[in-house]
């Protein structure tokens, strides 16, 4: 796949034709077959986003004083979000490039706020279901994670929270909802503890921020998680998820400027000039901000309420449909719009069910601890829900009738990865796979497929790891059966 830059440039039409062709091999999200990654409505709406983006695709929000238009988008997006989350007029914030940037910024901000008070060994408390972006932030910014475990109903075990806090705790995190199971953490209980100990509390509403407020407006009873809860000091919310903006737009808001101040970066001695930046990026994509603003103007409260209504219908339908299948169970008590489900029948390997679903043309994410399959449900899924549930029922029956399916395909890989006791080996294997993909001339590898055996000592080590893992998984399965 080595492609040099063409010696002679090509006509734009030919290049665009190539783009279309490359896209043809991607997951079929336009017909609702994909259950993560993409929020899609229809071609007209995609064109609208493209137009809004194009208008500002050269504009740069690096210097917020240069493009008045971009600062206006930012002000209006932040003001709208503050109102959606029941903030006071003091709520302020920044538009970022995505949820990960928003999460990274919160950790940097609270680390530096605590540093100003003399904390040199920062820690933060994360429920185990916190999005990976928080673990990334821990690594990037040197803030140690204290993990808050889940109780038997897969809810963050708030009773254990006080013991995890100490003088070095720079922040506590809650999610609304969490990505793996779609559960809203008990934010009011977190808040009571955070207020008592004067620790900032961030709510990660990256995925929920643009749907939960509208589910509530539609009459759905949900636990409180936004600025109505006194201890909540900041909230992240992605416009490029349930806000249906083009990719590249999220928000982070703070209860007041005393927090946001610590997010700012200024360097006054650079030969290139005095430099100030409110967020992580240098160049900030004007197109993404324009598209986010355009999406919010187009939907308004009525449009988002309508999307939330269809999404909730799809979610309820899926939840009930899965609960009706005796071999499966829905994880925890999800508030939506995401859920995880697993197998409660020792003869049904849930990853093998996932493989059967993949074979039927669906694309479904895998969960671990506990093992399961995942669904991020959007309004467009309402139309395919009957097909999905019918195929799921068939997939379960096929796996039950063919136990050997648990030893092949992704069932083998994920079974191994989620059970192998030596997690360091899993980490190393995944790092190796990424190295394969990103080395010069590397190609994408499908995690669902078993990698080909490698020659040499490394291949032998990998083969031994696989054998140990297989043995371990088989033993675990036998244990389950005996129970
Ligand atoms: C998606 C998500 C993120 C990260 O957002 P990206 O836009 O993918 O970087 C963070 N937290 C939660 C809960 C999410 O669902």
From TrEMBL:
The keyword Membrane applies. One of its GO terms (biological process) is sphingolipid catabolic process. Its cofactor is pyridoxal 5'-phosphate. Pfam families: Pyridoxal_deC. GO terms for molecular function: pyridoxal phosphate binding; sphinganine-1-phosphate aldolase activity. Transmembrane segments: none annotated. It is a single-pass membrane protein. Pathway: Sphingolipid metabolism; Lipid metabolism; sphingolipid metabolism. It is found in: Endoplasmic reticulum membrane. Keywords: Endoplasmic reticulum, Lipid metabolism, Lyase, Membrane, Pyridoxal phosphate, Sphingolipid metabolism, Transmembrane, Transmembrane helix. Its main location: endoplasmic reticulum. GO terms for cellular component: membrane. It comes from the Bacteria. The modification N6-(pyridoxal phosphate)lysine is found at residue 241. Belongs to the group II decarboxylase family. Sphingosine-1-phosphate lyase subfamily. This is Glutamate or tyrosine decarboxylase.
